[in-house]
Model the fold of this input.
Amino acid sequence: MLMVVAYVGIPIMMYPILSKHNKGLALGSVAFGIIAGVFIIIGVIILLLLLTVSHEFAKVGTLNVSYFQNLGGLLREGRDLVNHVATTLAFVLAMFLFTCIFYQTKLVPRWLSVSGLTGSILSILASLLFMIRFIGLDATYMLLNIPIAFQQLVLAIWLIIKGFNRAEQDSVSN
Done:
């Protein structure tokens, strides 16, 4: 549930700065961040349902085993799709949109923007390949998601230490 704060909070906190440069992309980033937060909540609810099913299975024992196995498998599959497709796609699209603004405005170095755009595309590809069952939740999926994770970490450190490019930010203010 703490991820909801980050997934929704990052685009909202960035909105006042980014909307000065491109309101549409900034608003889209906020919208996709909120959508990602909703999908996280749905994923948590599915996990709680899976817990309920396992408690019910423990109560009835071996009676109707296949029913509980099928229901548990369906809930797990649904949670995987919500978490690794819907949530990931929504959040990565939010990141992609504000990285587009970074690229256009040079608020951060170009190499950092390009790595974000590239990482976003690879992460979107990972989710789509997982959705169509071309890959599983395996090394390929993880490798395709490492670039965006690394870029987000570097971006966070960059913004904490150096902040935005003041020259670019001041040119919009004037």
